């Protein structure tokens, strides 16, 4: 018959004495020597040890993150860790000349940079769209100079039915498109654009980049000409693409999703497509 009784708590001093007796009895037992030999530590030492382990573990995680992941060979040796490639996409600046002409990227063989056409201020037919501006109209120039250039070229100012909103001036072009001059201050041009969607009428423009992209070019033509394009946020009905010359200047292309054609191009120091011009 087995009796049941509760065991009183063991006095720590008696526990140490019993442990000492057991260690002496097992001193000659080789297998017993593999049993842990660490005596009970005080709580202060245990906490300090735990904190040290945490610090070392954190340092090890940080080292692994910066140095890569170690691997083992069949013999159990640790191989030299290799750095892990970054998953963040990088933007490769496209070659450009002093006129802001961006070369297409990604071609099997280099595409010759076209000879720049002189931008005659009074002749819109000679103007080109580059990362430097649209013809003689450039970001950063005084608004008064831009207006004077437009008037000298025979362009008229229009409010497109909604007034000059969001600090913009509009210059009508003979082909039915408009040049839009956005302001970074009341007297300074922030961006220059050509817009094909004028008064809800889509037009095909004659102003083009040195490589022939103009209002009405297809999305396929744009992407095959400039493979260094990056995405730009715009409206859900449109897709935006940005192209940098690597010197802080951008051409941003706005593509209409329904027709898959370029409907606006913006030149500025930002990879940005502004909202509607007219309300």
Automatic annotation (TrEMBL):
Keywords: Membrane, Transmembrane, Transmembrane helix. Residues 68-125 are annotated as: Disordered. It comes from the Bacteria. Residues 104-125 have a biased composition (Low complexity). Residues 80-99 have a biased composition (Polar residues). The chain crosses the membrane at residues 44-65. This is Uncharacterized protein. It comes from Frondihabitans australicus.
């Amino acid at each position: 018959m087995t009796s049941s009784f509760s065991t009183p708590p063991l006095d720590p001093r008696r526990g140490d004495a019993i442990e000492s007796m057991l260690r002496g009895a097992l001193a000659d037992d080789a297998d017993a020597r593999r049993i842990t030999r660490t005596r009970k530590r005080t709580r202060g030492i245990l906490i300090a040890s735990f904190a040290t382990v945490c610090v070392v573990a954190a340092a090890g995680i940080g080292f692994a993150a910066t140095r890569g992941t170690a691997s083992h060979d069949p013999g159990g040796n640790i191989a030299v860790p290799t750095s892990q490639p970054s998953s963040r996409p990088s933007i490769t600046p496209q070659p450009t000349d002093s006129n802001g002409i961006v070369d297409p990227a990604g071609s099997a063989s280099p595409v010759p940079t076209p000879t720049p056409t002189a931008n005659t201020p009074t002749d819109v037919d000679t103007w080109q769209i580059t990362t430097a501006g649209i013809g003689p109209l450039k970001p950063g120039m005084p608004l008064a100079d831009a207006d004077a250039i437009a008037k000298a070229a025979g362009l008229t100012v229009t409010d497109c039915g909604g007034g000059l909103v969001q600090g913009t001036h509009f210059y009508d072009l003979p082909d039915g498109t408009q040049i839009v001059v956005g302001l970074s201050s009341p007297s300074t041009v922030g961006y220059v654009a050509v817009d094909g969607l004028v008064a809800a009428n889509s037009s095909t423009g004659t102003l083009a980049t040195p490589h022939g992209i103009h209002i009405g070019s297809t999305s396929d033509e744009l992407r095959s000409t400039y493979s260094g394009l990056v995405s730009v946020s715009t409206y859900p009905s449109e897709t935006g693409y940005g192209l940098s010359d690597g010197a802080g200047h951008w051409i941003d292309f706005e593509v209409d999703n329904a027709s898959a054609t370029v409907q606006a191009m913006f030149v500025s120091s930002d990879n940005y497509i502004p909202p509607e011009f007219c309300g």
